[in-house]
Amino acid sequence: MGLLEELTEVEQQGRQELTAVTDLAALAAWKSAYLGKSGAVTRLSRGLGGLPAADRPEAGKRVNALRNTLETAYAEAEARLKVMAQEAELAAERIDVTLPGRQPSVGHLHLTNQMLRKIIAIFAEIGFQVWESREVELDDYNFGLLNFPLDHPARDMQDTFYVDMPPGAPPVVLRTHTSPGQIHAMRRYAPATLRVLLPGKCYRNEQVTARSEMMFHQFEFLAVGRHITLGDLKGTLDFFAKRMYGPETTTRLRPSYFPFTEPSAEMDVSCYLCRQKGCRVCKYSGWLEIGGCGMVHPNVLRNGGYDPTVFSGFAGGFGIERPALIKYGIDDIRWFNSGDLRFIEQFG
Predict the structure, then answer these.
(1) DSSP labels for 239-278?
(2) Is residue 334 scored above 90 in pLDDT?
(3) Mean pLDDT across the chain, nearest whole number?
(4) pLDDT tens digits, residue range 24-82?
(5) Among 36, 142, 150, 302, which is least packed, fewest CB within 10 Å?
(6) Hey, what's the torsion of the CAs at 233, 238, 239, 245, to 10 degrees?
(7) Phi, psi (deg, nearest 5) at residue 304
(8) pLDDT value at position 16?
């Protein structure tokens, strides 16, 4: 067979085999067989030297034409196969819009913030506005102006975190209760009547147990005006308890002692779980302890800028986690700051 006849046969065979190629891997093998360094076209090109000199120009043109023809056919096949591969990939990744959607995971307020918002809403119904106070406080505001003299034994009731300060500077503490906000609020509004709610974080150097944390949340309520009595305090507490725990809830006050109130009391609510029949949560007493309260001490009123012979007031300080512990039957306060999603997601 002559070179020219072989060129024709290679072109026909190459085109025929190319039409049977169905993927890019087979196409690469075809290219190697026909257009590669050891392919059929290269082999024919090397055979030009054995032809008579008169036949070489024409044969060279035919070899180049064959190479161009096969390269064009290869490029067309490559483009076609790439489109087919993309279509197959898209088909494999096709989204079935008839399938039901997946519910996205959405965050929610932490239980502490849920309780805080509920408490704020309850007190807002009876005219209390939120007053935010600082967490790092002068010792005088945290203790002295609240009727805690330097040598007062009541200071031992709260193991305090003191902030390192330069020599000669007044002592600074992480507030042990939200009560310092009372002085700030009174000095801001005196001598006008006042009803404020003071929520926030408090800090005490305590042993961490199921019932106590070094950092906890508290809310303080304070009302100052003319002719405010202990009956007003009791009515406020009853209103709060019924809104928080249900309309059947009752309250009681037990005599207690706090330096900044006189008289002072501990507030209990009837156990809403057992309806005062006795259960593990209320320690079979039928009552749940909420927090302390009382009538604002005359010295504190005076330090806040009010004349105690004209004005009176009541105040109370409750933990925010404590109502949640009671309301949801949570047995360990450490869950609140654990970051454990098993706990947090229960209250979404």
Answers:
(1) HHHHHHH-TT--EEEEEEEETTEEEEEEEEEE-TTTTTS-
(2) no
(3) 86
(4) 888 788 888 877 877 777 777 777 766 677 767 777 777 778 788 878 887 888 888 88
(5) 150
(6) 140
(7) -85, -5
(8) 80
The single-letter code of the amino acid at 105 is: S
Please give the backbone phi and psi of residue 326, each rounded to the nearest 5 degrees, phi first: -75, -45
Cβ atoms of 194 and 313 within 8 Å: the answer is: yes
**Exposure string over 15-35, b if 16+ CB within 10 A, otherwise e:** eeebeebeeeeebeebbeebb
Q: Is the peptide bond before 263 cis (omega within 30 degrees of 0)?
A: yes
What are the residue ranges spanned by the domains of the chain?
A: 3-92, 111-347
More confident: 68 or 262: 262
Question: Tokens 């593990």 correspond to what residue?
Answer: 280
Q: Do 253 and 267 meet the contact criterion of CB atoms below 8 Å apart?
A: yes
295 DSSP β-pair partners: 314
What pLDDT score does 154 carry?
66
Name every residue whose Cβ is closer than 8 Å to that of residue 344 and which is 6 or more positions away in sequence.
Answer: 110, 111
Q: Is the pLDDT of residue 210 over 70?
A: yes
Query: The sheet that has 162-163: what strands, in order across it?
Result: 136-138, 172-174, 162-163
Backbone angles phi, psi at 319, to 5 degrees: -75, 140
Strand order in the sheet with 215-225: 129-130, 194-203, 215-225, 312-319, 287-296, 261-270, 251-258
CATH class of segment(s) 111-347: alpha beta
Cut 0.85: pTM above it? no
In the block, tokens 């007062």 appear at 152
In angstroms, the CA 319 to CA 220 distance is 9
Integer angstrom CA distances of residue 22 from 14, 75, 310: 15, 14, 99
pLDDT of the residue at 131: 92
> What is the Cα–Cα distance from 9 to 12, expressed in whole angstroms?
5
Average pLDDT over residues 269-278: 81
Residues 26 and 18: their CA atoms lie apart, in Å, by: 9
